[in-house]
Amino acid sequence: MKKKRKNKYYNNLSTGFIKITNHGYAFVHIKEFQKDVFIPKNKTHQALEGDLVKIRFYYNNRKGIKVEGEVLKIIKRKTKQFIGILKKSNIKSDDKYGIIKNNNIHVDILVSMKKLEKYHHNDKVLVQIISWPKKLRSPLGKIIKVFGSSGEYKTEIYSLLEEYKMSYKFSKKMENEAKKIFSERIIDLRSRKDMRNVNTFTIDPLNAKDFDDALSIRKLNTDIWEIGVHISDVSHYIKEGSLLDKEAYSRATSIYFVGKVIPMFPTILSNDLCSLQPKKDKLSFSYIFNINSKGEILKNWFGKTIIQSDRKFTYEEVQCIIDQKKGDYYEDIYTLFSFSKILIQNRLKNGGIYMEKVEVKFHLDEKNNPTSLYLEKNNDAHRLIEEFMLLTNRKISEFVSLNLNGIPSNKLYIYRVHDKPDFQKIISLKKIIEPLGYFLDLKNLKIAINHLLKQIKGKPEQNMIENLILRSMSKAKYSTKNIGHYGLSFIYYTHFTSPIRRYSDIIAHRLLYYYLNNNKKRDKNEKYKLKTIECYEKQSQHCSYKERLAIDIEREFLKFIQVKYIIKFIGKEFYGIITGFTDWSVYIDLLLFQTEGMVRLRDIKEDSYILNSNNYSIIGKKKRKTYYLGDKVKVKLMDVNIEKKQIILDWIDYNT
Predict the structure, then answer these.
(1) What is the pLDDT of residue 12?
(2) Does residue 231 sit in the same domain as residue 206?
(3) What is the pLDDT of residue 90?
(4) What is residue 62's predicted lDDT score, i.e. its pLDDT?
(5) Which residues of the chain have pLDDT under 70?
(6) Is 28 part of a structural domain of the chain?
(7) CA terminus-to-terminus distance, the chain
């Protein structure tokens, strides 16, 4: 007589998305349970990461796991295409298959040796699963595309773009449409304010080619200046519904890699026609205002203009002019700088959070290999431009959203919104920084965060704490539902100032132009028609989604460059700051490189360390020594894995 299985009920069926670990066991989230259903290694039945699966589950209290299950059926594959690295070197002559390794799935993909003759060991490829015979532990696939040798600059860029499903080529039709726009440009000056006789210049990074914005300034009398913020009038050239418009919407943003840009528009438009180059007549959409010496704005004007930039400045050149108090357009630049300081003060008084950005930058050689690293800090020149762009985005948003009497107009618009921080993340931040000697007043959070940012300036733990603050914040996004911008402390805010590289700004341009023309009763030929709020909300969500993808892809490529650069330092010792713990490892920010490496807990020789229950520290079993997030330690660079973008460290100094 068969024994009855205890605590197992096989009639429990459900569906969900599967998460498979590198070790092969998996979890499926289903609504009925708070905890995910555990799927043992031998019960995943050919499911792959992210697949929608049908499972049967049961209760298994003997193992201490409440709910265990097995995959019955794969309802829908998340994808059948994967990017991986072809491994041919250790294959014996009688082997039938070559192996393609992918870090995101727990199995290799096999490709018939007969079909691998034209491919090389370590090629990065796009492979498609064609079948998975029951007798094989891995699926069979075919190579669709080869990107080049793994670890090379172009290979990594184009394989990342493919992985994130980001467009990077313009079709012949699109290129032809761009050429047609370029050759047929007609300027109707009757509908534009002519600003070509006013001192105007652009301030951009050294290698910039797409100039979105220019500033103009003239003194009207002893106490009043007229300042113009001129933004490229991209929507004049790109008609809604055109081929290029649809492609720009699909991309939603330009992508900025180290040393390369994947533009939202063909370069004939982004770097030439729409770019506000010096000594050329250019069409712009402008915010022009009068301001007195106290920084009070007396008068606003919004509309289409024609400008001519007198000079193209880099941030470094403008910083030199500010520091040395001399140079081209010194008086204009210094006046704008003085006003930018007032704008910053006003923003901070109003409760804006003030974070100074530090970016890791690299010099590349002719083969695009990183030769040196430098940290670019926001200087006065950066802040000058930033403040006038913030002001423009705010003022345009207010103009649309408020009537002259200050009462909300309820007009439809696209806003850049930023919600309050997640309270639990703020509590976590508070707990992490307290052992380091910092305090966070939760009653006056913005003031407390600004105070904390001042306190950590120049300290080794600055980068880590700034990242923790950023992670505790909500993500800014686009929406038709205005909830204000928490970080900037603006009630109304939009993105208007970068239409060459952000589609959200083109939406903002079209809507503003519609409202400006709507007020002019004589203009009955306005072609732009308002769509439904649902339509703009869908566009907002799409722009937010694509922005997140672009940020992720840029970060991932930066990590690749950092890892590639750091190889030459293997065997050297460095100081680092502890930035994170898991059950198996410690993550350390290498101060010299501003990049994260990892020490395995089992490799720390002085004691056997375990993760404390709060996840913010580790403790030695014997000596009871505790290490916290933010502690400074000395490490040795042991190894680098370019494929996994990992930096392996050894913990050499325990008493720093």
Answers:
(1) 85
(2) yes
(3) 66
(4) 63
(5) 1-11, 61-65, 89-94, 519-528, 653-656
(6) yes
(7) 67
Residue 231's domain comprises: 172-342+356-419+474-559
Residues 107 and 71 in one domain: no
Q: Would residue 618 count as lying in a domain?
A: yes
Residues 501 and 591 in one domain: no
**Residue 287, pLDDT score:** 98
Residue 221 corresponds to which amino acid?
N
Give domain status of residue 574, yes or no. yes
The residue out of 76, 102, 128 marking a domain boundary is 76
Q: For residue 411, what pLDDT is reported?
A: 96
The closest of 383, 377, 376 to 344, measured between CA atoms, is 383
Distance CA 104, CA 82 (A): 9
**Strand, coil or helix: 330:** helix
Give the β-pairing of 297-308 and 193-194.
Answer: parallel
CATH classification at residue 130:
2.40.50.700
Structure tokens of 76?
Answer: 């829908």
In degrees and rounded to multiples of 5, residue 243 shows phi and psi of: -60, -45
Domain co-membership, 113 together with 56: no
pLDDT in tens, 265-304: 999 999 999 999 999 999 999 999 999 999 999 999 999 9
Token output for 475: 């993500």
User: Residues 6 or more apart from 587 whose CB is under 8 A from it?
Assistant: 578, 579, 580, 581, 596, 597, 598
Q: Which residues contact 209 (CB under 8 A, 6 or more apart)?
A: 261, 267, 270, 271, 275
3-state secondary structure of 268: helix
Of 150, 183, 198, the domain-final residue: 150
Say how far apart CA 513 and CA 526 lie, in whole Å: 10
Number of domains in the chain: 4
85: phi then psi, degrees, rounded to nearest 5: -115, 130
Instruction: Say yes or no: 54 and 93 in one domain.
Output: no
Q: Are residues 88 and 40 in the same domain?
A: no
Structure-token pair, residue 526:
């306005």
What pLDDT score was predicted for residue 616? 87
Judged by DSSP in three states, 572 sits in coil
Cβ atoms of 54 and 71 within 8 Å: the answer is yes
CATH of the domain at 16: 2.40.50.140
Tokens of 111: 């490709």
pLDDT at 407: 95
Q: For residue 105, tell me if it sits in a domain.
A: yes
Whole-angstrom Cα distance, residue 360 to residue 463?
12
Q: In angstroms, what CA-CA distances link 390 with 54, 393, 522?
A: 50, 5, 33
* Greatest CA separation for the chain: 105
Count Cβ atoms below 10 Å from residue 543 Cβ, excluding itself: 25
